[in-house]
Amino acid sequence: MIKRKNSLYQVGRKRGDWWKWKTAPLTIDAVLIYAQKGHGRRSNLYTDYTFAVKDGDKLVTFTKAYSGLTDKELGEVDAFVKRNAQEKFGPVRTVKPELVFEIAFEGIAASPRHKSGVALRFPRINRWRKDKPWQEINTLDDLKLLLQQFGTRTDS
Question: pTM, whole model, 2 decimals?
């Protein structure tokens, strides 16, 4: 937040004395491995996704994301999930690891609650990487490097 030194706090979206300064998000390429149907107008489509990065020969989940795709792209991913569902765990479907997405986020922190050991702040799909095979996604070591570099990042 940038503000005039002598300005007072004002309720609501007042302009002039305070500005929210946004920096470029951090990003990482990941593969979709789980999908679940959405809510509301998206309740008939698989729109809630879980992503993984490579850790040696295996894939490790590290975040979920629900936004960032167009309606057309959501339809394409939904069709892929329906064609490539491998296992069912209640409402969740495991899918063949093939679709790569760039995940954007505002911060990263260590987290013992997650298998990857990290938690992302405000994760979202930045773009669908149709140009990239899943074998070229980022690794858990890449995430840990971001954690070392930006672990205390608190942009809003």
Answer: 0.83
